[in-house]
Specification:
The chain is an alpha+beta fold. The chain contains seven helices and 27 strands. 16% of the residues lie in helices and 32% in strands.
């Protein structure tokens, strides 16, 4: 029984059941549009930067508008260099979902100078938005990233508080990650607007690396469907898959290679099977091809299985995700594996061959960044080395690379440090 069905059983006839969450879907419209810019009479919103395979030299921009933009163009230039403006014709990626027409566009910039500072704007004919700044990632000297756990919510003000406090405390972050279950209901457009609105000043400033969660696959009736909105909203690096484009991907920042694994085969198999096998083959080739100093995995569902309060028949152990991918992470010498899904922050330390081993990858369960909580549901696992203080509240993670060291630090929204772990290459043999 998966988590969604178990929790539905656990809550029985409670009328406010919402597909794996203790709260109903958000129904209020977003309080504000992301990126309140205009191009003539057109209003732009939800402007976002999406991670590319190498954000030191390229960048993907996506945005929406209240109406069709004729001849939409993205213009960019080195910061302050008025005479060096370049123009890129935008791709029309408009689509329909949740009974609405979404006017959406994308444009990818290539051949940036690593570490360079730039400006960009959206144009249509003689009209253009205001210039906005962005910077290319460095290829040396390390980086800083913010990692957000599940942000699904009934009230996205909580998510906004976590996100805004994180970027305020880390204005030098190079990119950020959402670990899946970005919204509570993947078809509900009002939730997506609330999620985007919470990221004003973040997703329009630095690239976003999305991870698909199971809640991205739910329709308004809480039945599983293909994650249509998620796949339209985010255009990550290509994986060359005919069957599962945008489901999984990889990218490299400096000496660190990130593999974004999709754990939603239980949800998607009835529509398109083969996701697991395809990813296993892809991951082996991808890691070997890149050959970077560090390898980091990002996946939504967790690798451990927890005993659940009130269910003595459920045994402690490893999930199907763990059984499939943990041996592969060891074979490919991954250094850190980040997971989500359980809405609790836990550091499991190093694991290899399904047991404590200081030569295995470090496994971090990232926590919660929204208002959906599972109080006292999961019993501590024997492999948990650290559990966030209870009752658990929201958190985010700052992940950084600096020469021969990786640092994982977890924080409460007010900046209080929960835990910090450091890894050096000398730690593994």
């Amino acid at each position: 029984m998966n988590r969604r069905h178990f929790l539905k059983f656990l809550l029985g006839g409670m009328a406010f059941w919402a597909g794996g969450c203790f709260f109903p879907a958000a129904k209020d419209e977003a309080k504000k549009d992301l990126m309140p810019m205009t191009v003539g009479d057109l209003k732009l919103k939800n402007l976002r930067q999406i991670i590319t395979d190498n954000p030191a030299v390229s960048r993907m921009f996506m945005w929406q508008s209240n109406d069709k933009i004729p001849s939409a163009t993205l213009e960019y230039r080195p910061k302050g260099a008025d005479g060096e403006t370049k123009k890129i014709a935008a791709l029309d990626e408009s689509f329909e979902d949740d009974g609405e027409k979404v006017f959406q566009y994308s444009a990818r910039i290539e051949y940036l100078t690593p570490g360079g500072e730039y400006e960009y704007r959206i144009a249509a004919g003689e009209n253009a938005s205001a210039w906005q700044e962005f910077r290319a990632a460095n290829t040396t000297g390390g980086f800083k990233a913010i990692i957000f756990p599940d942000s699904q919510s009934s009230d996205y003000n909580v998510w906004e508080n976590v996100a805004q406090n994180a970027i305020k405390a880390n204005p030098d972050a190079d990119f950020f990650v959402g670990m899946g279950d970005l919204v509570d209901n993947g078809e509900d457009s009002t939730q997506w607007q609330a999620w985007f609105a919470a990221l004003l000043g973040l997703i329009d400033k630095i690239p976003f690396a999305p991870v698909m969660g199971n809640h991205e696959t739910y329709d308004r009736k809480w039945q599983v469907r293909l994650p249509n909105a998620y796949l339209k909203y985010f255009a990550p690096p290509a994986n060359n898959s005919e069957k599962f484009p945008r489901y999984y991907y990889s990218f490299t920042v400096g000496d660190v290679h990130f593999a974004v694994i999709n754990t939603q085969w239980e949800e998607t198999d009835e529509f398109a099977d083969g996701l697991v096998g395809e990813q296993i083959s892809w991951l082996k080739n991808d890691v070997k091809k890149n050959g970077k100093k560090w390898n980091v995995a990002l996946l939504h569902k967790d690798v451990l299985q927890y005993r659940i309060s009130g269910r003595p028949e459920r045994k402690e152990g490893f999930s199907d995700v763990g059984a499939i991918f943990m041996p592969l992470f060891e074979e490919l010498r991954f250094d850190v594996v980040f997971t989500a899904h359980l809405h609790t922050y836990r550091d499991r330390g190093r694991i290899k061959n399904f047991a404590r081993d200081d030569t295995g990858p470090l496994y971090i369960l990232t926590g919660i960044a929204g208002d959906v909580r599972y109080p006292n549901l999961w019993t501590d696992h024997a492999l948990d080395e650290f559990v966030a203080p209870q009752p658990e509240t929201d958190n985010y993670i700052v992940f950084s690379a600096d020469n021969d060291k990786l640092t994982v630090a977890a924080y409460l929204p007010d900046g209080t440090e929960i835990e910090k772990r450091e890894i050096t290459k000398g730690d593994k043999t």
